[in-house]
UniProtKB/TrEMBL annotation:
PANTHER family: STEROL DESATURASE
Single Gene Ontology MF annotation: aldehyde oxygenase (deformylating) activity
Name of this chain's protein: aldehyde oxygenase (deformylating)
Organism: Triticum aestivum
Keyword Cell membrane recorded: no
Keyword Ribosomal protein among record annotations: no
Enzyme Commission number, as recorded: 4.1.99.5
Ranges that cross the membrane: 35-59
């Protein structure tokens, strides 16, 4: 909750006129408690999980239901789909969506209710001024690198015999991944993977809006690498060392026996530690 009753008070505290973004943030958050602003992450996550994978899911289902000739005209699965023989029914898509939504709501929702003191302790702020674009970009890069490195080692631990059998095997139920399967996992894995995702903001504290953006970016990246499609025009191909869907799809295709391609974002950890496998 911002300590300003009016825009004039906010501008007096800033010593300058507010930007349009800052004025909008003041109007939205002035009377919203900080812990409720933090809990926005739950709604953002569920909305993003519902909408972002939907276009490719509908395209795949449409191509599956159409006659062969029509399917080829609508989408060429042999060209873009990494495992073209793997076809899921609408019921399988729905089951994945409902199961994952329930786990996300229960785990992330519950975690958001109890973790707010830690958020305040590390210095996540809600006030003015808003961060600059350069500050946000630098923080995003740090968060990606930290999360990728820690996530790599956690992923390797989850592929030990105990970790896989008791936790990680749930995520590998889909050997041909798709967008809705990105966060499909045991509830314990959802909580465990929250640690590397939050470590970056804990090391380099940010504004609450940056934290929202970070979780949006991280979730979109997870959906992308689990999409099951390798489009040549995907803009992520311009990102250096980005693994993408083909890198992670191989890991799912091998399944529980996989001891390679553990990286979630970049590929340099797999390269450095000898777990990189050509797709």
């Amino acid at each position: 909750m911002l300590p300003y009753a009016t825009a004039a008070e906010a501008e007096a505290a800033l010593g300058r006129a507010m930007t349009r973004a800052e004025a909008a943030w003041l109007r939205y958050s002035a009377f919203v408690p900080d812990h409720l602003l933090y809990c926005h992450n739950v709604a953002i996550l569920l909305i993003l999980y519902t909408i972002a994978p939907l276009p490719l899911a509908l395209l795949e289902l449409r191509a599956r239901a159409a006659p062969d000739g029509v399917a080829a005209a609508v989408m060429r699965p042999s060209t873009y789909k990494l495992q073209p023989r793997a076809q899921l029914s609408p019921a399988a898509f729905l089951r994945c969506y409902l199961d994952t939504g329930r786990v996300l709501l229960l785990t992330v929702g519950a975690l958001s209710l109890v973790s707010y003191p830690a958020v305040k302790m590390v210095g996540i702020r809600t006030g003015l001024p808003l961060p600059s674009a350069g500050e946000v970009a630098a923080q995003m890069l740090v968060y990606l690198l930290v999360e990728d490195y820690l996530g790599y080692w956690i992923h390797r631990l989850l592929h030990t015999r105990w970790g896989y059998h008791n936790i990680h095997r749930v995520h590998h139920e889909f050997t041909a991944p798709f967008g809705y399967a990105a966060p499909y996992a045991h509830w314990a894995e959802v909580l465990i993977l929250g640690v590397p995702a939050f470590t970056g903001p804990a090391i380099v504290p940010c504004h609450m809006t940056t934290l929202w953006l970070w979780f949006v970016l991280r979730h979109l990246e997870a959906i992308d690498i689990h999409s099951g499609f390798n489009f040549p025009f995907n803009p992520t191909k311009l990102i250096p060392f980005y693994g993408g869907a083909d890198h992670h799809d191989y890991h799912h295709r091998v399944g529980g026996q996989s001891q390679s391609n553990f990286s979630s974002v970049f590929t340099f950890c797999d390269y450095l530690y000898g777990t990189d496998k050509a797709c």
